[in-house]
Amino acid sequence: MNVVLLGPPGSGKGTQAQFIVDEFGIPQISTGDMLRSAVSSGTELGIAAKKVMDAGELVSDDVILGLVEERLQKPDCIKGALFDGFPRTLLQAEGMTEIGVVVDAVVELVVSDDVVVERISGRRVHQPSGRVYHLTFHPPRIPEKDDETGEELIQRPDDTEDTVRERLSIYYRQTAPLIDHYRKSSASYFKTDGTVSVEAIGAAIRDFLRNI
Ligand code: AMP
């Protein structure tokens, strides 16, 4: 089962991805997390990507498709994968088809711009695992520490308000056309309000995915 999570930055894709991974036993493929890990290990790719990411812009389709193709060779992807933050352009969606990935289901999380900005400014991340928290809405048990490892949480450099607004405008220009693309495809499509409780969204997504 290949599932794509669609929605603007801050719509809760990362949070919901954790539930889906636990329930359906497919790995989360987050191109954002993969790029951040390349940045922190200081690879050539990471150094080049950092500038683009910090400005809230998109990394090139070729680089992203190369990363995803390599990731999909790993044995844990045998039953499919959950794509979080990928594809982000029509070219990436086409590239995905070319490498043989058939998208079975698409989940779209709908959230207004103001809510996105409010959410992102309070967002904290446990970098090694990709676990996401929010100072108000989903606080860690101990402030600024990951619940499972106790390690320090960080605020991403691209989570400032100006950069978030730039990321939103790029989302509408480059990624939102995927909504139409997938609605016209053979994938099952589920659009859901991303502003109700994390648990309610998780339950709705689970119901949808169990029945595809
Ligand atoms: P995310 O964590 O998914 O919000 O991604 C953080 C940043 O990584 C984005 O703002 C982009 O700069 C870059 N990025 C992540 N995924 C992609 C993608 N599929 N295509 C292009 N750039 C991406």
How does this model look, in words?
The chain is of the alpha/beta class and 212 residues long. The chain has 9 helices and 7 strands; from the N terminus they run βαβαααβαβαββααβα. The structure holds adenosine monophosphate.
Short key terms for the protein model shown above:
two-stranded antiparallel ribbon; five-stranded parallel sheet; 15% strand; globular; alpha/beta; 212 residues; binds adenosine monophosphate; 47% helix; single chain
Summary, kept brief:
The protein has 212 residues and is of the alpha/beta class. Helices cover 47% and strands 15% of the residues. It contains nine helices and seven strands.
Unreliable segments of 5+ consecutive residues: none
Listed once per kind, the bound small molecules are: adenosine monophosphate
By helix and strand content, what is the structural category? alpha/beta
The shape, in one word, is globular
Helix content: 40-55%
What is the overall pLDDT average?
95
Q: What are the secondary-structure elements, in order, as H or E?
A: EHEHHHEHEHEEHHEH
Main beta sheet, described?
Answer: 5 strands, parallel
Got a strand count?
Answer: 7
N- and C-termini, Cα separation: 10 Å
Strand order in the largest sheet: 2-3-1-4-7
- How many whole angstroms does the radius of gyration measure? 16 Å
Oligomer: single chain
How many helix segments? 9
Strand content range: 15-25%
